[in-house]
Amino acid sequence: MSLYIIHPIVMGSKVFDKGMMTYQHGYGTPYTIPIYCWYLEGGEKKILVDTGEMSPIVSTEREAAIGGKIYTFEQGLAKFGLTPEDIDIVIHTHLHNDHCENDFKCVNARFFVHEKELERIHDFHPLDFRYLEECIEDVEANGQIEVVTEDREIVPGIRVMHTPAHTEGGLTVLVDTAKGLAAITGFCVIMDNFEPPKEVRAMEIEVIPPGTCVNPRQAYDAMLKVKQAADILLPLHEPRFAIGEPIG
Questions:
Q1: Using CA atoms, how far apart are residues 183 and 43, in angstroms rounded to an integer?
Q2: Nearest to residue 116, comparing CAs of 107, 125, 108?
Q3: CA–CA gap between residue 38 and residue 71 (Å, rounded)
Q4: pLDDT score recorded for residue 128
Q5: Rounded distance, CA 84 to CA 87, Å?
């Protein structure tokens, strides 16, 4: 069995209301989230989960808020002796722009994307303005996209699970590590979503859906499925991983 080490690399950030993460909770609380690209080290292929922002805002205030350094795509990969051209596989949790702005730089990569994400990026609702077609036009034109239609293995030790919580085609990435099964969530949440405060748990609510979700009940169920499946939870925007320490 192939085992991997997961390296979170901050390649962007957002400053907004915490309620954007935690459905019906946390409104009015200023919050800064990191935007990650995850490097999966261990197999024969050079694999990333998402590619982050193309031109991230880098400031001492934002880095202090998330507790880690913010990199450009090239800087983040260089930490591991990599260039964009070295990447063999990119797995997309979803296709909102902050998760795929550097796709065009990975000219040798195969991109794994759920069919629903491809549908939506070309035909999105006005409320879902985070889809920007130009982010994937190059890799689509080059025939680099492999469409995912069901839960499946990508390579030994890495598989994806369809979790329509934040978007219709969200893919949670399940990674075998020496410390157990890790789940990089296919939806935009922080650890508070999986570990609600006691006043929320007192309402018999086990998880909090993403602040922006397709359907809150469906999102709740998808989150429970991930929580029950994984030994290690890696919420897509949790600040505690911004320090960049390897996971697994």
A1: 17
A2: 125
A3: 13
A4: 86
A5: 6
Nearest to 33 by CA among 19, 13, 18, 6: 13
Q: Is 20 helix (H, G, I), strand (E, B) or coil?
A: helix
CA-based nearest residue to 22, from 205, 151, 146: 205
In a domain, 232, yes or no: yes
Q: What residue spans of the chain are helical by DSSP H?
A: 60-66, 73-78, 115-122, 137-141, 191-194, 198-201, 216-229
Tens digits of residue pLDDT in 115-132: 999 999 999 888 888 999
The structural domain count of the chain equals 1
For residue 125, the model assigns a pLDDT of 85
Q: Strands (DSSP E) along 132-170, which ranges?
A: 145-148, 152-155, 158-162
Residue 15: give its domain's CATH number.
3.60.15.10
Of 234, 193, 196, nearest to 210 (Cα)? 193
- Over the Cα atoms of the chain, what is R_g? 17
Classified as helix, coil or strand, 134 is: helix
In a domain, 51, yes or no: yes
Cα separation of 39 and 61, whole Å? Answer: 25
The list of the chain residues with pLDDT below 70 reads 1
Tallying the residues shown for the chain, one arrives at 248
Q: Is the separation of the CB atoms in 144 and 90 below 8 Å?
A: no
